[in-house]
Amino acid sequence: MSENIESVLTEKRVFEPSEETARAARIKQADLDAMYGKAESDHAGFWADLARSELHWQKAFSEVLDDSEAPFFRWFADGELNVSENCIDRHLEDRGDKPAIVFEGEEGDTATYTFRDVHREVCLFANALKAKGVEMGDRVVIYMPMIPQAVFAMQACARIGAIHSVVFGGFSADALRDRINDCEAKAVITADGGTRGGKVQPTKKGVDDAIAGGCKTVSTVFVYQRAGNEVNMTDGRDVWWHEAVADQPAECEPARIPAEHPLYLLYTSGSTGKPKGIQHSTAGYLLNAVVTCKWVFDLRDDDVFWCTADVGWVTGHTYVAFGPMACGVTQVMYEGAPTIPDGGRIWRLTQNHGVTVFYTAPTAIRALMKLGDDFPNSCDLSKLRILGTVGEPINPEAWMWYYQVIGGERCPIVDTWWQTETGAHMISPLPGVTPLKPGSCTRPLPGIAADVVDEEGHSITEPDQGGYLVIKKPWPSMLRTIWGDPQRYKDTYWPKFDGKYYLAGDSARKDADGYFWIMGRIDDVVNVSGHRLGTMEVESALVAHEQVAEAAVVGIPHEVKGEGIFAFVVLKGERPEGGYDEKLVKELIQWVGKQIGPIAKPEDIRFADNLPKTRSGKIMRRLLRNVAQGKEVEGDTSTLENPAIIEQLQGRS
Ligand code: PRX
């Protein structure tokens, strides 16, 4: 913890909401105070009221929070509802002809789906799933490009109570296979291919390769025809989406789903090699998705919302597939790279589709900022009213650019702190209410008992002292467990403070105004472009290469990605001359890309005879981080078993 505790206190700017945004805000300061008050005095009752008013129930709940088996919490457990019905059917009467998804492909092709269209597509596909024997509780893996059909597939699963697990289309076949096998998926939904950066990514081939490596549980692979690339169809297993829906009725009764039934699993990295299947509930998850869309994005009927996240990440679940749909707003979806054909693509999309609320990640903001102001300045971005960011702390320079150049100093920036595990925003400003400080996610939302505590679990009251970010009370959209591994759930998220507080794995500080500043991770996790990667996962991938005996990876600051990966490798054979071998470095980088996906590729690799270890054999990552950043190795090295190795790692011997 100690190395996290120092914080650089440079940011002093405060941006008060303008009179206009304050006046327009859905939630005013007085409302917010009342919400905090209610949540404080009756935590469960606060959420129960919202669950009744915001969700449509097939059977009302009478139990609110069941904490009898903590930390396995249950919310609204005797209620029944259907997420797909909440997201689609309930809009049909008033908003049936309103666009739900306005889609644009990289090559400029467009498609608009109204809520009625979405209803039809989802029902057809839900029926196709059923026809192939997919039932309530079965797992279905979705491995698709960022196209509306990915959302339809998720919604169709939700409609029949199948538990979906989206695997990011950029992940490799090996990563896909591990996830299919971990959840024992009965079916996989994919596309022939998707387009990104002018190239077709053969998604179906990824599925074939994954299954060829052994996925015994998969009996059906649905293939949506998107890119038109050639694919192999395996008889008896593979079926084209359009053929599967051809004879299906366009109505599918939404199943009655118990509130605690898992809605989806989403695999995320932890500090060990094996990804964790984060299990989300049905009702609690949807509740936080809906209320945060209203509180944080202030979504209204005439908004056009655009969250740029892929549905392979949690952001694309909560703020593409579910939250905005449940709120009945129009949203933009884009398949492709942000800089094709040039750095103006995102801003033209924003202009052309009249986007009012825009949500993206700091890594994208930095990448676009580097391309200069001309692109955004040549677009009319005047419809924008709220900007959001997520995934990592945003550096004040990028924040200011976003605020001034994109938002015209008019749009509040909601810097939303949350995680795959939390399901929805936890700490965030409310637009028009919360004064903003660049780089701070400001304050916890009502009903979210976030705090910063010391090693003993005591709240840190002194300003700017770093500590553990914890959540002290359960909240509806919290993860329920790790799929198939409840012990790991307990060990990972409730290991300290007598198991009373949820441990987020981030360190944070609160300033004198009670604003939260996220300082970094406390575990061995690297945040690359706003996505968590476990260092162990990358290490396991490296060690799987025939020439590698041992590997250690650390995060290094990266101008665009936030953090990049730097790897130290011990070869089975001799260390290359001078500690470097360009050809092998390239090969290993490609290798990791193949094993996990391009996102996990190391920036650089250094070879050593050994790694710095304590006498008990633990790798001293603190030292490796210093070496990777070209810094002097600081701090205590007396526990090192092999001190001479530091010189070698620094390239001095
Ligand atoms: O370290 C925090 C960082 O991203 C982690 C969660 O990663 P993931 O589960 O992949 O979800 C990303 C999208 C929700 C957190 O533990 N993080 C996320 N949002 C912020 C952030 N760090 C600082 N500020 C944020 N707004």
Could you characterize the architecture of this molecule?
The chain has 653 residues and is α/β, with parallel strands linked by helices. The chain is 32% helix and 21% strand. The protein has a seven-stranded mixed β-sheet with strand order 5-4-17-16-18-19-20, sandwiched between helices. Adenosine-5'-monophosphate-propyl ester (PRX) binds at residues 268, 314-315, 390-393, 415-420, 441, 504-506, 518, 521, 527, 530-532.
Topology:
Blueprint: H1 2-5, H2 19-24, H3 29-41, H4 43-54, E1 65-66, E2 74-75, E3 80-81, H5 83-95, E4 99-105, E5 110-114, H6 115-131, E6 139-143, H7 148-160, E7 163-166, H8 173-183, E8 187-191, E9 194-196, E10 199-201, H9 203-212, E11 220-224, E12 238-240, H10 241-246, E13 257-258, E14 264-268, E15 276-280, H11 283-295, E16 304-307, H12 314-327, E17 330-335, H13 345-352, E18 357-360, H14 362-370, H15 374-377, E19 386-390, H16 396-406, E20 413-416, E21 450-453, E22 467-471, E23 481-482, H17 486-493, E24 502-510, E25 516-521, E26 525-528, E27 531-534, H18 535-543, E28 548-558, E29 562-571, H19 582-595, E30 604-607, H20 621-628, H21 644-649
Parallel strand pairs: 4-17, 6-7, 6-8, 8-11, 11-12, 16-17, 16-18, 18-19, 19-20, 29-30
Antiparallel strand pairs: 1-2, 3-13, 4-5, 9-10, 14-15, 15-23, 21-22, 22-24, 24-25, 26-27, 28-29
Helix pairs in contact: 3-4, 5-6, 5-7, 5-12, 6-7, 8-9, 11-12, 14-16
Bound molecules: adenosine-5'-monophosphate-propyl ester.
Key features of this structure:
single chain; 653 residues; alpha/beta; 7-stranded mixed β-sheet; 5-stranded parallel β-sheet; 30 strands; globular; binds adenosine-5'-monophosphate-propyl ester
